């Protein structure tokens, strides 16, 4: 069922405008703890705190001079009474709040010891990963759930220059590398033949267990029973969600206004860029990672970074709040 979207007032369009109202930066660390059944621990924010009643990944503020690892060890001991071994970074989320700018550094906890309990009176719950989305969370914690559950690479298909059969074979090779999210597009391809080719491609994606979206064509998305990614122009012209509430909807975004529109429309994620210069957009200056991180602060949507990026950039993308990278050439196998 489609639903109308409330208008969004967004006078600030530049990265610099986001941080003007709140310049205080708060560094926060959090940990992903799992039990023997693979469930993940959430803690409920207590009364008297900002965002009381919401669920979050446990952790707290990093003190001046502390490393993130040391801060997380201290916080989890103070809050939960356990000793932990801190692993690698899952994601670092910059998020703007009315009174502060927060940076949430989330680490995997590889091992923990002791009797876990809420020493500050906070409720605790072990949640199966597939149910994390059902818990109300602060904005900064929502991208963490996506980082745990969704693909870190988003393949955008190229034009079938060598013909439909070669294009389908290329898609299959990409899926064989482990690609789990695909945007089907074929600029310049015969529009009469595209629905049939897209249907074949969607079948390959489903067989590989990959989520599939089509580019810009809501009718085709509904016909194939797949997701839809809107162009920025479509996003700006859309006031009603073009898919049912359970349909996967994404959008291509370039500024704060578009990101907020995508969130208001009920998009599950957005693609933001371009980060670096690309051959397909000669002369266009990228926003860079610093610009990406500042735009990231404005919304809680999972965001893929796009523009001159490949798999080697995923760790950098995660440090700036991205879900991962979206790409054409870098994710499309050659040969």
From TrEMBL:
<keyword id="KW-0515">Mutator protein</keyword>
<dbReference type="Pfam" id="PF14815">
    <property type="entry name" value="NUDIX_4"/>
</dbReference>
<feature type="binding site">
    <location>
        <begin position="56"/>
        <end position="59"/>
    </location>
    <ligand>
        <name>8-oxo-dGTP</name>
    </ligand>
</feature>
<dbReference type="GO" id="GO:0046872">
    <property type="term" value="F:metal ion binding"/>
</dbReference>
<feature type="binding site">
    <location>
        <position position="59"/>
    </location>
    <ligand>
        <name>Mg(2+)</name>
    </ligand>
</feature>
<feature type="binding site">
    <location>
        <position position="79"/>
    </location>
    <ligand>
        <name>Mg(2+)</name>
    </ligand>
</feature>
<protein>
    <recommendedName>
        <fullName>8-oxo-dGTP diphosphatase</fullName>
        <ecNumber>3.6.1.55</ecNumber>
    </recommendedName>
</protein>
<dbReference type="GO" id="GO:0009228">
    <property type="term" value="P:thiamine biosynthetic process"/>
</dbReference>
<dbReference type="InterPro" id="IPR036206">
    <property type="entry name" value="ThiamineP_synth_sf"/>
</dbReference>
<dbReference type="GO" id="GO:0035539">
    <property type="term" value="F:8-oxo-7,8-dihydrodeoxyguanosine triphosphate pyrophosphatase activity"/>
</dbReference>
<dbReference type="GO" id="GO:0044716">
    <property type="term" value="F:8-oxo-GDP phosphatase activity"/>
</dbReference>
<dbReference type="InterPro" id="IPR020476">
    <property type="entry name" value="Nudix_hydrolase"/>
</dbReference>
<dbReference type="InterPro" id="IPR022998">
    <property type="entry name" value="ThiamineP_synth_TenI"/>
</dbReference>
<keyword id="KW-0234">DNA repair</keyword>
<dbReference type="InterPro" id="IPR013785">
    <property type="entry name" value="Aldolase_TIM"/>
</dbReference>
<keyword id="KW-0460">Magnesium</keyword>
<comment type="similarity">
    <text>Belongs to the Nudix hydrolase family.</text>
</comment>
<dbReference type="GO" id="GO:0044715">
    <property type="term" value="F:8-oxo-dGDP phosphatase activity"/>
</dbReference>
<dbReference type="Pfam" id="PF02581">
    <property type="entry name" value="TMP-TENI"/>
</dbReference>
<dbReference type="InterPro" id="IPR000086">
    <property type="entry name" value="NUDIX_hydrolase_dom"/>
</dbReference>
<dbReference type="GO" id="GO:0008413">
    <property type="term" value="F:8-oxo-7,8-dihydroguanosine triphosphate pyrophosphatase activity"/>
</dbReference>
<dbReference type="InterPro" id="IPR047127">
    <property type="entry name" value="MutT-like"/>
</dbReference>
<dbReference type="InterPro" id="IPR003561">
    <property type="entry name" value="Mutator_MutT"/>
</dbReference>
<dbReference type="InterPro" id="IPR029119">
    <property type="entry name" value="MutY_C"/>
</dbReference>
<dbReference type="InterPro" id="IPR020084">
    <property type="entry name" value="NUDIX_hydrolase_CS"/>
</dbReference>
<dbReference type="GO" id="GO:0006281">
    <property type="term" value="P:DNA repair"/>
</dbReference>
<dbReference type="GO" id="GO:0006260">
    <property type="term" value="P:DNA replication"/>
</dbReference>
<dbReference type="InterPro" id="IPR015797">
    <property type="entry name" value="NUDIX_hydrolase-like_dom_sf"/>
</dbReference>
<keyword id="KW-0235">DNA replication</keyword>
<keyword id="KW-0227">DNA damage</keyword>
<feature type="domain" description="Nudix hydrolase">
    <location>
        <begin position="23"/>
        <end position="150"/>
    </location>
</feature>
<feature type="binding site">
    <location>
        <position position="45"/>
    </location>
    <ligand>
        <name>8-oxo-dGTP</name>
    </ligand>
</feature>
<keyword id="KW-0479">Metal-binding</keyword>
<keyword id="KW-0378">Hydrolase</keyword>
């Amino acid at each position: 069922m489609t639903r109308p979207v409330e208008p969004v007032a967004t006078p600030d369009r530049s990265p610099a405008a986001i941080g003007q109202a709140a310049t205080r930066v708060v560094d926060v660390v959090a940990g992903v703890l799992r039990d023997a059944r693979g469930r993940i621990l959430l803690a409920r924010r207590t009364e008297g705190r900002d965002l009381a009643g919401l669920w979050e990944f446990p952790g707290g503020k990093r003190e001046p001079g502390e490393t993130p690892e040391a801060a997380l060890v201290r916080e989890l001991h103070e809050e939960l009474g356990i000793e932990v071994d801190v692993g690698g970074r899952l994601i670092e989320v910059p998020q703007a709040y009315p009174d502060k700018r927060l940076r949430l550094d989330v680490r995997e906890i590889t091992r923990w010891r002791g009797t876990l309990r809420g020493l500050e009176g906070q409720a605790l719950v072990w949640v199966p990963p597939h149910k994390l989305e059902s818990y109300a969370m602060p904005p900064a914690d929502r991208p963490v759930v996506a980082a745990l559950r969704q693909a870190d690479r988003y393949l955008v298909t190229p034009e079938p220059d060598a013909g439909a059969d070669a294009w389908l074979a290329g898609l299959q090779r990409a899926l064989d590398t482990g690609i789990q999210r695909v945007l089907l597009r074929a600029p310049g391809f015969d529009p009469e033949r595209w629905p049939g080719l897209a249907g074949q491609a969607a079948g390959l994606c489903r067989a590989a267990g990959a989520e599939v979206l089509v580019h810009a064509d809501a009718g085709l998305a509904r016909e194939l029973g797949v997701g839809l990614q809107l162009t920025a122009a479509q996003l700006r012209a859309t006031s009603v969600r073009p898919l049912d509430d359970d349909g996967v909807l994404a959008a291509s975004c370039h500024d704060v206004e578009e990101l907020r529109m995508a969130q208001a429309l009920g998009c599950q994620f957005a693609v933001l860029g371009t980060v670096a210069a690309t051959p397909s957009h000669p002369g266009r200056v990228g926003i860079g990672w610093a610009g990406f991180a500042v735009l990231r602060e404005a919304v809680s949507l999972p965001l893929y970074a796009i523009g001159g990026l490949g798999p080697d950039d995923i760790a950098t993308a995660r440090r700036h709040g991205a879900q991962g990278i979206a790409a054409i050439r870098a994710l499309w196998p050659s040969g």
